[in-house]
Amino acid sequence: MSRNRLPPGQQLAAAGKWPVVGERSPAESTAPWTVTVSGLVDRPRTWTLAELATLPQVVRTLDIHCVTRWSKFDVRFGGVLLEDVLKQSVPSTSARYLSFVARSPRQHSTSLPLDEALGLETLLATTADDQLLTSEHGGPIRTVVPGKYFYKSLKWLTEIRVLDRDELGFWEGKAGYHNEADPWREQRYVAANLNRLQVAKAFTQRNFAGLEFQALEARGITLEGLNAAAAVLRNADFRQARLPKANFERANLSNARFEQADLREASFRDADVEGADFSGADLRGCDFRGASLLGVTFVGSRDGAAAASPAAAAIVDSTTRFDAAQFDQLFDVQAAYLRSQLV
Ligand SMILES: Nc1nc2c(c(=O)[nH]1)N[C@H]1C(S)=C(S)[C@@H](COP(=O)(O)O)O[C@H]1N2
Ligand SMILES: [Mo]
Questions:
Q1: How confident is the model at residue 188 (pLDDT cuts 50, 70, 90)?
Q2: pTM for this one?
């Protein structure tokens, strides 16, 4: 038997109904519609719709799943493959992420890892059920990303930025929507036990103080000066996040991931960072006094990969503060690495 087509927590929208979610219309402009491929590519290019129409046209019948719990089966989307557009621009070897940007009042955006966007066969769609896309559903052109919540499918596409780091989109960076967005794993919001308004407020005010997030997904996020005092952030993923001057005093960060994060002048005083991974993070000016450091990684990675490569070592210098006694909690190679850097 084939697996249930309806992901957990979803309901089918009424027959023939397709709700409009989020922005309802693009930015007003009389300029002809274009789609630009920019960033880490050998050949940046701006396409008119007529030029895009010369690429191979594909039709895909897809199920869409909105994070607000409605799904719609068998929408026939027509357009061109992202892959066919990107390959004309030749992404450079450092390209890892794509940010899709809308010609909309708030320049709405959403992002995906490059490999995933291609692997899922992302479409730049111009038709749905054999009709031109209506404006409210993203016409004249939108992305459609099969297998993700529909918020990863951007209406009114006007730019595809090719990047080496993730830049979180509008919902993901401002409203706590999950950056991976897999409907089969119910990756709706970064914090399962907070409602969307609470999460949105925490992010816009950069104030997580005292809040509890389960396995917060905050990879690549920018939250300079975040106040996360006494927050419960076990298993949080802050890889590559920009968190200078963040306040994590007394927070529970056990097993959190901070690889490659910018943590300059952050405070972890009296925090629990047991099992956390700081490899590659910038820890200049950071304060770890009083923190519990059992099993922390500063050099090499917790996954054992790239153990000896210099990029995998945290940046630590005489401005990074520890109590001498804390080194007893660390594995020998970790303590030796810190001692070698702190002099
Ligand atoms: N430009 C833009 N694209 C967007 C949004 C938005 O607000 N602006 N909302 C997203 C969300 S949350 C969903 S569910 C789908 C909704 O698409 P629809 O209105 O065609 O159903 O578009 C996504 N793409
Ligand atoms: Mo959505």
A1: confident
A2: 0.71
